[in-house]
Amino acid sequence: MRSGVLDSRTHFVVRRDRLKPAGSLASCRTELQVLKKNMLKFSILVALVCSLAQGQTAAGEAAAPARERTVWDGVYTEAQAARGEEAFSGMCSSCHRAGFQGPGFMQRWREDKVAAFYNFMSTKMPINAPGIATKQQYLDIVAYVLSTNKFPAGSQELAVEDLGKIQVVGKEGPQPVPDGALVWSVGCLTQGDDWESLTRASEPIRTREAETPPEAEMKAAGQKALGSLSFRFLYIESLKPTNLKGQKIMARGFLDREPKGDRLLATGLIPLGGACQ
Ligand code: HEC
Questions:
Q1: Does one domain contain both 116 and 47?
Q2: CA 212, CA 269: separation in Å to the nearest integer?
Q3: What is the pLDDT of residues 228-274, one digit of tens each?
Q4: Is 44 inside any structural domain?
Q5: Which residues contact residue 97 at a Cβ distance below 8 angstroms, ignoring those fewer than 6 apart?
Q6: Which of 100, 15, 6, 91 is closest to 53 using CA atoms?
C-alpha cells in the first residue's frame, strides 16, 4: 500500500470530521491546538478547512453536515430485514445460497453509496428475470443483506430516497478505493515524455458508469477542487485526448494501483471547461 494514497485519504477523513456547522471558529481553534501537539501538517489542514468553513458562512451557504451517513447508522429495521430474508429465499437463494456478506461484499460495494448495490440488483437480478420483485422487496433485500453483514438495525426503515445518501464503509471507516475499482477523478490532462497523466488529481471516487457520468457526478466534479495525486493513463488514445491537453477534466476509468505509481485505465475523459493554469 502506497503511503501517499493512504495519507490523502486520511486527510479526507480529518476534513469530514472536522468540518463543523457554520460559525464554529472557536471549536476549530480548539481542535487546532490539540492537533498541533500531534502533527504539523494536520494542523495546517485543519486551519485550511476552518478558513474554508468560514468562507462558506460568509457566502451565506449552508455548511456541510458534520458527518456523512453510513451503513453503521442503523439505516434499516429488523422487521424490514426479516421481510427481506423471506424475499431473498423466494427469489435469490436458489442461485445465491451463500448470500452476500464478508470481504467479497465489501470489496465490491465499499466506498460507494448503498444505491449502487440496490441499482445493480434491482435492474439485473434475478439474472433470469430482472426486475421481477417490487421496489419494496428489493429495498427489503438490501436491509437483509446489510443485516447479514452485521451493520446494526435502527428504528427507521430504509427508503428509496435514502439509498443515495448512505455510504458503505467498513468498521475502520472510509478507506482508499480498492484496486481495480471503476472511479472518477478531477485533474489536469498532462503530456509527459512518454505518456499522458492526470496530474493535480483529486482522490478517486467509486462509480458504476464507465463512460458517461450520471448528472450528480457531473455536478460534484464541477465543484471539486484539484488535488495532489497523479495517475498515469493507460490506453487513452481511443479517447482522443489531444484536444484536452492542459485542460481541467473529469477522468473515468479502472484504478490500477502500482508500487511505482497508480494508473488509470481510462474509459472516459470529460472536459470541465477551462485550462488548468
Ligand atoms: C438464476 C440465478 C440467479 C438468481 C435467481 C439471482 N441471481 Fe444474482 N447473480 C447471478 C449471477 C450468475 C451473478 C454474477 C453476474 C454478475 O456479477 O454480474 C449474480 C450476481 C449477483 C450480485 C453481484 C455479486 C456480488 O457478489 O455482489 C448480486 C448482489 C446479486 N446477484 C443479487 C441477487 C439478488 C438480490 C437476487 C434475488 C432478487 C438474485 N441475485 C437472483 C445469478 C442469479
A1: no
A2: 9
A3: 999 999 988 888 888 899 999 999 999 999 999 999 999 999 999 88
A4: yes
A5: none
A6: 15
Residue 171: pLDDT band by 50, 70, 90 thresholds?
Answer: very high
The number of beta carbons lying within 10 Å of the beta carbon of residue 262 is: 22
What distance in angstroms lies between residue 127's CA and the mean position of ligand 1's atoms?
6
Point out the ligand 1 atom lying closest to the alpha carbon of residue 121. 32
Q: Which residues line ligand 1 (CB under 6 A)?
A: 91-92, 94-96, 100, 104, 108, 120-121, 125-128, 133, 141
User: pLDDT: is 35 or 261 the higher one?
Assistant: 261
Q: How confident is the model at residue 64 (pLDDT cuts 50, 70, 90)?
A: low
Q: Which ligand 1 atom sits closest to the C-alpha of 137?
A: 38
Domain assignment present for 219: yes
pLDDT surpasses 80 at 41: no
CATH number of the structural domain spanning residue 98: 1.10.760.10
Domain count, the chain: 3
* Shared-domain flag, residues 96 and 142: yes
CA of 128, closest atom in ligand 1: 1
Q: Is the pTM of this model over 0.90?
A: no
- The residue range of the domain holding 57 is 1-64
Q: Write out the DSSP string of 63-117.
A: PPPSS--BTTS--S-HHHHHHHHHHHHHHTTTT-TT-S-SHHHHHHHTTEEHHHH
Ligand 1 mean position to 100 CA, how many Å? 9
Clarify whether residues 127 and 98 are in a common domain.
yes
Check whether residue 164 and residue 201 sit in a common domain.
no
Q: Which amino acid does the sequence have at 112?
A: D
